[in-house]
């Protein structure tokens, strides 16, 4: 079970009280140096996608072979560093950054704040939430986008082009919603998200959290951008606000078992996936599965849309 930040804070405070009582109960310790016990360091998980990063306004900026992809990598790294700097200004912390876009090796490792731990590469069972568990005090989702089929969502999709819809316990979700469910199942609150305006509105329908808007979509392939310098200031300010209120942060409530329903772009993929034990066919392009835990659900979803092919 996750030991939330407010409970860990109580444990540290209790240690201070015990230290004081020990001195009071033992006169021989009067005058001895008392060790000061500070607040426990925060443990923060950051998942970074690319479509919702500040300054990115075309599909080619998010693709390794596209025009200005190198600039996109710089912009992505700078958004993360703005948040990380605010975290460490707030106090001691352990920060894990998980690259969560495409082949998941987009961030400029040597330009990242040296105080973070960086997870790179895409052959990982938990994809965008690799490394996240109940030991974290909070999660932050950076540079996210709206779910597939969303009107006025910049580069809106869910997982890959093979997915036409994803539902968890009959709630339609995109990548942000799926990741929030995973965090919630592990008792970790999502305290801030950033991305295009449509994504932030969509995410707040799922759970109440702080948001930073980086751009507004003009159709699905064009964006009206907020300047990165302005976005960085808002990322830092919102991060500080989120951390100041972290003892009141609540994770998304997730009911387990989890019923997964996925609609695909072709009947062929559904033909293949129905061969997985436990997977049932709903209609020509839709399959369903009941997972005992959100971790099981997440791994299967990732397998079905990313690793199963023909």
CATH class type of the largest domain: Alpha Beta
Low-confidence stretches: 10-24
Number of domain units: 3
> Helix fraction?
25-40%
N-to-C order of helices and strands: HEHEEEEEHEHEEHEHEEH
Strand content: 15-25%
How would you describe the shape? globular
As a whole number of angstroms, the C-alpha radius of gyration is 21 Å
Structural class: alpha/beta
The major beta sheet can be summarized as: 7 strands, mixed
Oligomer type: single chain
How many DSSP-defined strands?
12
DSSP helical segment count: 7
CATH level-4 homologous superfamily of the largest domain: Dipeptide transport protein
Q: Write out the strand line-up for the largest beta sheet, numbering strands in chain order.
A: 3-2-1-4-7-8-9
Question: How do the strands and helices of this protein lay out in sequence?
Answer:
Blueprint: H1 5-25, E1 42-48, H2 69-90, E2 93-99, E3 116-119, E4 138-144, E5 163-168, E6 171-172, H3 175-185, E7 190-196, H4 197-206, E8 210-218, E9 222-225, H5 228-244, E10 258-264, H6 267-273, E11 280-283, E12 286-291, H7 294-307
Parallel strand pairs: 1-2, 1-4, 2-3, 4-7, 7-8
Antiparallel strand pairs: 5-6, 5-10, 8-9, 10-12, 11-12
Helix pairs in contact: 2-5
